[in-house]
Design brief:
313 residues, alpha/beta, Rossmann fold, two-stranded parallel ribbon, 39% helix, globular, binds nicotinamide-adenine-dinucleotide
């Protein structure tokens, strides 16, 4: 059945892939994005686009005009470093912006709310691995805290408004269109620098491990969440850790990059080793990651090569 779907952050990395997929499945898509990190060019022409801040009262007019049945909420201040520099702005976007949307969902009778949360930044340094959804929540950054705050509000709004929700806690997502100029998104940054034959910096000694999940798999989790009838929280990752040094080597091999990395001091707010237990998503969503790291990196390098040098936004 064709749905009216509102995608916040639909001009961003993950959001733009989701918008493409929703359109391909015949849904009507409305994008709200203030283009703070997203790009207008990433929004497909068949989607309706509103260049608005999610905190703006004008977002109500979008709900009024289009009456979305489902909201995919991806717009966020998504930088750990920026959240440490300006926790107030982080909370404004991630908490107050989300509350604005949740209230509008109640007012305009939205049926499903699908929230892009983080599995990498809310558990803190894992007490055990892989990390299940039941692991204690001890964020190391304001970003982790603000993303989680919305999860705390969700059951309350479900009770107040009657929508059902799915929380998807992603590990480190990578793939085509990820911003290579931000401070996060190590795959995009390394790929761009290697293709330009520029120096690659590794923060820390490179033994830190992350769970890298391909963007297409993340989109698939969102699509599966559409047909859920109840509310739930799922980790979305691969269940495997890869060290930053190993990632560097794999990408260098794929690209033919010959320089050694430069090591710099580790950055605050980041966990040392994490990978997610995705058993619950397998059982409850019927989701499993399909693109392995070798394949996903090859697809990413190919896309970055084809895209050429994109100017900084
Ligand atoms: N990329 C990852 O590894 C990862 C991991 C865990 C969770 N997430 C979550 O996934 C979501 C998408 O992340 P992404 O990697 O695609 O990042 P992104 O920065 O590419 O996308 C975020 C989008 O939101 C928009 N935006 C930011 N503030 C806004 C505001 N106030 N009003 C309207 N639009 C606004 C940006 O312009 C951008 O298009 C975020 O919620 C992020 O927290 C991402």
């Amino acid at each position: 059945m064709a749905l009216r779907a509102l995608v916040t952050g639909g001009a961003g990395f993950i959001g733009s892939h989701l918008v493409e997929r929703l359109l391909a499945e015949g849904h009507q898509v409305i994008v709200v994005d203030n283009l703070s990190t997203g790009r207008r060019a990433y929004v497909p022409p068949d989607a309706l686009f509103y260049p608005l801040d999610i905190c703006s009262p004008q977002v109500a007019e979008v709900f009024q005009a289009h009456r979305p049945q489902v909201v995919f909420h991806l717009a966020a201040q998504a930088s750990v470093v920026r959240s440490l520099e300006d926790p107030t702005e982080d909370a404004r976007v991630n908490i107050l912006g989300s509350l604005n949307l949740l209230r509008l969902c109640g007012r305009f009778g939205v049926e499903r709310f699908i929230y892009s949360s983080t599995g990498g930044a809310l558990y803190g340094e894992p007490q055990y691995l892989p990390v299940p959804e039941t692991h204690p929540i001890i964020p190391l950054s304001p970003y982790g805290a603000s993303k989680y705050a919305v999860e705390v509000y969700l059951p309350l709004f479900r009770a107040l408004t009657g929508f059902t929700y799915t929380v998807l806690r992603y590990s480190n997502v990578y793939g085509p269109r990820q911003d290579p100029y931000g401070e996060a998104g190590v795959v995009a940054i390394f790929t761009r620098r290697m293709l330009d034959d520029a120096e690659v910096v590794i923060y820390g000694d490179g033994t830190q491990e992350r769970d890298f999940v391909y963007v297409g798999d993340v989109v698939e989790a969102n699509i599966l969440a559409l047909s859920q009838k109840t509310s739930a929280v799922y980790n979305i990752g691969t269940g495997r850790g890869t060290s930053v040094n190993a990632l560097f080597e794999r990408l260098a091999r794929l690209i033919g990059y010959r320089r050694p990395p430069r090591y710099a001091p580790p950055r605050p707010g980041e966990v040392y080793r994490i990978w997610l237990d995705v058993g619950r998503a397998r059982e409850g969503l019927g989701w499993t990651p399909r693109v392995d790291l070798e394949q996903g990196l090859a697809l990413t390098v190919q896309a970055f090569r084809a895209q050429g040098v994109v100017p900084r936004s």
